[in-house]
Amino acid sequence: MINSKNVKYTILSILGLLLIYLFWYVKNAVEISEYLEPGIVATHYNGANYVGSQTCYECHAVIYKTHLETAHFNTSFYPKEGSIKGNFRSDSNELDLGSVRLKMVMDEDDYFQLSNVKYKTKEVVKSKIDIVIGSGVKGQSHLNWKGNDLYQLQVSYFQPTDSWVNSPNFPENALNRKVDDNCLKCHVTFAQHKDKTSDSKSYDRERIILGIDCERCHGPSENHVKYHRQNPDVLVGKFIDNFKKYNRQQRLDACAVCHSGLQAQQIKGNPFSFIAGDTLSLYSKNYRNVNSNTKLDVHGNQMGLLSESSCFINSPKMDCITCHNPHENQRGNASVFNAKCLSCHEVNTINKVVEGQEHTASQNCISCHMPLVPSEVMKLKAEDGINEIPVYIRTHLIGIYE
Ligand code: HEC
Ligand code: HEC
Ligand code: HEC
Ligand code: HEC
Ligand code: HEC
Ligand code: HEC
Ligand code: HEC
User: What span, in angstroms and rounded, lies between the C-alpha atoms of 90 and 67?
Assistant: First the structure.
């Protein structure tokens, strides 16, 4: 016998189940569409969207992980214990510059510079360190937000002496100086101007991508990620450039945009307009020193120096990637670099005797042919006021030094 009560219950339970299924379906559909639509972190001036390097992890895990260890990835970041260098505790956290006294302090979460201009006022100005510039291999500088403007603080960390110093080229009591694209362009992936139409040097604080990340070298990658999430069976990269298809100039330009020294003049767009694959000479022009000696702006000018080397001039295919893997930290790995030299030079055909010895494959080639040279830019006056303590940079003018 059919019980009308039972029928009611059955219908109700079926309805209930349907409802649960509907919830589940909607929630899943939202999750899938969220997955297929990566979150946008910033928008380039050409309209393309950045999605951030975490997005790359699911398909390029190995590259993602090794990249975290590079000086590029760590060249700018929000201050955090372990990465921010220098002493913020009260034994050697002070710097006296004559007219201004400075002190570096920290509380639970944040780091600050305290400054007090002597003779003028007793007032102590407390400036928060909002962004750190520099991986710390050589040093670190600090930036502070005032509204939407960024300022570099007076004190920097200097690795060779492991101490606080006046920031390079800083007047003694400037306390801070405004930072624009000409500082950020080489140390961040992207910074979006507050007002896109003008030459504004105010930034959108939510749209700044710190570190030199995947999308700095590979371009904003939203379309690439979307496509491959929707088409997991396609194993050829879409909507992304392959460096192997670039000509030599394009490959060089992708690095030269930041490794040609500090004196570049913008002739098109702004310093973030150029992306890999473009021709750099259409965007900026370098005032290059013509005299070819190691003094040629060693600071950051690997491109200028390399291009004057006999290796480079006589090898039609040599570029930065010949010796560097952009995804790995290779600093100090002499055997990797020796192998690169030996891929073109056979030691047993080098008939030159050096210091009574023949060339052998186990010698460290760069110690003689790419020596460390003092930087003209990053240096510190020693306490005697006369001598200078420089940072040493590996010259890319490969040659014979005595
Ligand atoms: C859903 C998977 C997926 C995601 C997410 C993804 N990629 Fe890819 N990518 C691929 C596939 C598949 C290829 C082709 C095979 C390969 O080279 O690994 C590729 C290739 C590439 C290439 C080489 C291009 C070529 O022609 O060989 C680059 C560069 C690249 N991806 C960069 C990125 C970056 C940067 C991100 C993060 C913003 C990213 N990918 C995220 C799937 C993905
Ligand atoms: C044209 C590109 C470029 C610009 C502009 C630039 N830098 Fe650099 N910077 C570099 C390069 C490249 C290095 C690595 C050292 C080298 O090769 O000389 C570097 C190194 C540094 C370091 C040391 C990092 C380490 O190795 O530990 C600091 C700190 C730094 N820069 C701060 C700044 C600040 C602050 C500004 C703006 C006032 C600035 N840079 C502008 C390219 C640039
Ligand atoms: C400093 C610039 C730079 C950065 C940063 C960078 N790449 Fe690359 N990437 C390159 C260059 C240059 C090549 C071409 C290498 C070659 O031709 O051997 C390349 C090649 C690739 C390829 C092709 C396969 C391969 O191994 O050659 C993939 C995939 C890729 N990059 C993904 C990434 C991802 C993901 C990140 C971030 C985690 C990243 N890259 C960060 C410069 C960079
Ligand atoms: C957006 C600017 C930018 C681009 C593009 C760029 N670099 Fe750099 N590179 C830097 C800066 C800044 C540093 C210094 C990082 C630091 O120590 O804080 C650096 C450091 C390095 C170092 C030293 C790493 C170490 O362990 O200290 C190498 C090698 C290097 N770059 C090679 C390359 C190559 C090769 C390319 C092209 C594939 C490239 N870079 C593209 C800005 C850039
Ligand atoms: C892509 C190939 C290639 C690579 C890689 C290469 N070289 Fe060379 N190098 C050349 C060529 C070609 C010449 C010019 C002809 C010659 O002297 O053999 C040259 C010339 C030289 C010279 C003579 C310089 C002069 O001014 O007379 C020295 C020294 C040298 N290379 C050292 C090195 C060292 C050290 C490395 C590794 C850090 C290296 N090379 C990597 C191709 C290369
Ligand atoms: C012939 C090989 C070779 C080529 C080509 C080459 N480099 Fe290097 N580079 C080296 C070696 C070797 C070092 C030293 C690595 C170390 O200290 O462990 C180095 C170091 C660097 C450093 C760190 C300098 C320092 O002292 O902190 C930067 C930045 C750099 N290279 C950028 C470039 C760029 C950009 C290009 C292309 C214009 C390039 N390199 C081409 C071999 C090369
Ligand atoms: C102790 C220092 C030292 C080391 C280490 C060293 N070289 Fe040399 N190399 C020299 C000197 C000095 C000369 C020039 C000798 C002369 O002209 O008589 C030279 C000459 C050369 C030349 C030019 C040869 C020619 O025919 O003009 C090449 C190429 C070269 N070295 C490559 C290398 C390579 C590759 C390595 C590493 C396996 C290396 N060197 C290690 C000091 C060194």
Answer: 35
Q: Where are the alpha helices (DSSP H) in 177-289?
A: 181-184, 214-218, 222-230, 248-256
Average pLDDT rounded to a whole number, residues 337-365: 83
Answer yes or no: is pLDDT of 296 > 50. Answer: no
Ligand 1 binding pocket includes 224 (Cβ within 6 Å): yes
Query: pTM for the full model?
Result: 0.93
Nearest ligand atom owner, CA of 318: 5
List the chain domain ranges: 8-37, 74-179, 288-394
Task: State in Å: Cα 330 to ligand 7 middle.
Answer: 23
The helices-and-strands tally (H runs, E runs) of the chain is: 12, 21
pLDDT of residue 250: 96
> What is the radius of gyration, based on Cα positions, of the chain?
27
Cα 224 to Cα 233: distance, rounded to the nearest angstrom: 14
Single out the residue of 132, 229, 123 nearest to residue 188, CA to CA: 132
Query: Count of CB atoms within 10 A of residue 24's CB?
Result: 10
- Could you tell me if the CB of 318 is within 6 A of ligand 5? yes
Interval 242-279: pLDDT, tens: 999 999 999 999 999 999 877 678 888 888 999 999 99
Token pair belonging to 347: 């030691």
Q: How far is CA 368 from CA 83, 282, 295, 364, in A?
A: 32, 37, 17, 8
Mutate to test the pocket of ligand 5, among 306, 349, 367, 398 (most ligand atoms within 8 A of CB): 398
Instruction: At 296, list the tokens.
Output: 């040629």
Residue 332, SS3 per DSSP: coil
